[in-house]
Amino acid sequence: MTASPQVSAGDETELLAAFDAVIERHERIEPRDWMPERYRSTLVRQIAQHAHSEIIGMQPEGNWIARAPSLRRKAILLAKVQDEAGHGLYLYSACETLGVSRDELTRMLIEGRQKYSSIFNYPTLSYADVGTIGWLVDGAAICNQVPLCRTSYGPYGRAMIRVCKEESFHQRQGYELLATMMRGTDEQRAMVQESVDRFWWPALMMFGPPDADSPNTEQSMAWGIKRDTNDELRQKFVDMSVPQAKALGVTFPDPALVWDEDRGHHDFGQPDWDEFTQVVKGGGPCNAQRIAHRARAWDDGAWVREAATAFAQADA
Ligand SMILES: [Fe+2]
Ligand SMILES: [Fe+2]
């Protein structure tokens, strides 16, 4: 799976040439194949970060399950949050094929040695946030993840195909929720606008820092792990979201947002990158709360893991 110590330098050159040829042909690297150690560690970092984001992302929306305004809305939200748990499981499994156990991955998350998406460190203050997260946060996730269906590592790409189908559904349910509220009272419309105002900039941050400040992008693209740069994806998301906002009847809190005829794209302002850095470093509004909750859930589940292990051994 990885470069073993008995591989000689000559063998390694040959193995690397074979690996490069697979990448060049846009074919897939599978768990049984030799791969450079940095390719493996980059994938572990990226897939783990993605898996952690799915699992931590259950918290802000889970916050509204008990307070959803109707049985129908509760059922939709419950199913959506369960989907995110499923995404986390596919991705942890993909990561395990690279030789890291789920135990280790969870420990690294709880100890702050691996990251998750900055967006989930913002609170959900109103029920409209459930719709906004579906529309903008799952929408941004789709922009990020559709190209990953073609990523060079087989288990990751295959997991992403199913994840993306479900994310599209999440985006639509969020949009439908907001559209319903926009047809309601003035108070409901104001709730939607206030929620969109709070989530717009953090949603743009989901694509990561500008390309000039993203040291890993170039190598990740050369290896076919990443297919588009952060700025390309951010542009795509803005272009996609503007007509949807118009149809919905909401605005984005960016005075610089304007259609640029020459470029054929929207121009837009930059998020507050200092805020982004602070949130990524653990100083966001909910970082401590999210990790404390995850750690508690992990501890509470210890007896289940022990029982499952004992059962599997008794069965063997
Ligand atoms: Fe997801
Ligand atoms: Fe989702």
Automatic annotation (TrEMBL):
Coiled coil: none annotated. GO terms for biological process: phenylacetate catabolic process. GO terms for cellular component: cytosol. It comes from the Bacteria. It holds the Pfam family PaaA_PaaC. Transmembrane segments: none annotated. Gene3D superfamilies: 1.20.1260.10. One of its GO terms (molecular function) is phenylacetyl-CoA 1,2-epoxidase activity. NCBIfam families: PA_CoA_Oxy1. This is Ring-1,2-phenylacetyl-CoA epoxidase subunit PaaA. It comes from Nocardioides psychrotolerans. The lineage of its organism: Bacteria, Bacillati, Actinomycetota, Actinomycetes, Propionibacteriales.
